[in-house]
Amino acid sequence: MTLTALTPRRGTPEPPASSPPPGSPAAPALADAYARVRAHTEALAAPLSAEDQVIQSMPDASPTKWHRAHTTWFFEQFVLVPHAPGYRVFDERLAFLYNSYYLAAGPRHARPRRGMITRPSNAEVADYRAHVDAAMARLLADPAALTPALAEVVTIGLNHEQQHQELILTDILHAFAENPIAPAYDPAWRWRPATPADGMVSLPEGIHTIGHRGDGFSYDNEGPAHRVLVGPVGIARGLVTNRDWLAFMADGGYAEAALWLSDGFAAVQAEGWQAPGHWREIDGQWHAVTLGGSQPVEPDAPVCHVSYYEADAFARWAGRHLPSEAEWEVAAATGELADAFGVVWQWTRSAYLPYPGYRAADGALGEYNGKFMVNQMVLRGSSLATSPGHARLTYRNFFPPSARWQFTGVRLAAFSA
Ligand SMILES: [Fe+2]
């Protein structure tokens, strides 16, 4: 990504020092959350060999080892160095390797060349993680040190690491899909059918408030909450399935220029797209490289690894539209959308733009969201790879319209349901 993320909401009054900030757990809970999130990263990396953890299969994807180290650098750079008196940086050279895109945090290694880095080794990265974890444990055990502002940065760091946990899976899947023998991350993994759900959730014309409200954690790009005019529109209760997509392919969908945005058809031609990402035709049958390795395409599973361009063309072919992010949020709030969360992210027709009144925070963490608000489209919901507890109704994921290595799928909308 362009990770979504991560600044405290500007203009939010800081609570008194004696109380935790909104959305941030008290010290013991924060220490527990820290240990749990960090352990989950290592659990995700555990099935991967040292060779697996070095590979970078394309500029947008990063090596597993890089994700493990970068998330560690985040806590070192933004929590320990400024807030832990006497903290000893593990290795001064690592900031150059593991700063992702924070211009205010100093120079950094080129993103497309992350796969060139064989040293530090996996074991040294594990030592780096352990060094930072020990210092974080000491800091989080000291209630006097844990100011509300610091607790909020730690909370951001945990949410940041959860985002990279999803990327660990999407990035290694892309690498495995490039491998002719299609290794399995988890040999037992299988797609499940989409939840059967016919029809549409009808939204009559009305004014609704969207965006994050309340005390729970959110990224700054989820606010300010504001009112929008929605409807009349219908939002499909169910996701588009592989069966639907195979019909689109059989009808010549990838070859019919009239269905596509100009940039989209250019991408089809330049990339040779004939099917969703990670699909391969073997002896006349379509297979998909999944986390469980290469498997025949399951017709009832939701289509996945499609770009915005493909989602838009499919919607046009189907005589439908993609929902706007406001339409998606209002429909999902009814609780009547099947598979809104935890299956595939759903493309919306909304460009990733600031909400009215949004201002990025000052400083390095302010670089996290605002500077990416151009040339990308919003996705809503969450995916099967999203870490537990990370999804929200108001969450705004975003990727360029050509990206399709994430777990991205389609939910349709109709203005004449
Ligand atoms: Fe990051």
TrEMBL record:
<feature type="compositionally biased region" description="Pro residues">
    <location>
        <begin position="13"/>
        <end position="25"/>
    </location>
</feature>
<feature type="domain" description="Sulfatase-modifying factor enzyme-like">
    <location>
        <begin position="197"/>
        <end position="337"/>
    </location>
</feature>
<feature type="region of interest" description="Disordered">
    <location>
        <begin position="1"/>
        <end position="29"/>
    </location>
</feature>
<dbReference type="InterPro" id="IPR024775">
    <property type="entry name" value="DinB-like"/>
</dbReference>
<dbReference type="GO" id="GO:0052699">
    <property type="term" value="P:ergothioneine biosynthetic process"/>
</dbReference>
<dbReference type="InterPro" id="IPR017806">
    <property type="entry name" value="EgtB"/>
</dbReference>
<feature type="domain" description="DinB-like">
    <location>
        <begin position="34"/>
        <end position="168"/>
    </location>
</feature>
<dbReference type="InterPro" id="IPR051043">
    <property type="entry name" value="Sulfatase_Mod_Factor_Kinase"/>
</dbReference>
<dbReference type="InterPro" id="IPR042095">
    <property type="entry name" value="SUMF_sf"/>
</dbReference>
<keyword id="KW-0408">Iron</keyword>
<dbReference type="InterPro" id="IPR016187">
    <property type="entry name" value="CTDL_fold"/>
</dbReference>
<dbReference type="Pfam" id="PF03781">
    <property type="entry name" value="FGE-sulfatase"/>
</dbReference>
<keyword id="KW-0560">Oxidoreductase</keyword>
<comment type="pathway">
    <text>Amino-acid biosynthesis; ergothioneine biosynthesis.</text>
</comment>
<protein>
    <submittedName>
        <fullName>Hercynine oxygenase</fullName>
    </submittedName>
</protein>
<dbReference type="Pfam" id="PF12867">
    <property type="entry name" value="DinB_2"/>
</dbReference>
<dbReference type="InterPro" id="IPR005532">
    <property type="entry name" value="SUMF_dom"/>
</dbReference>
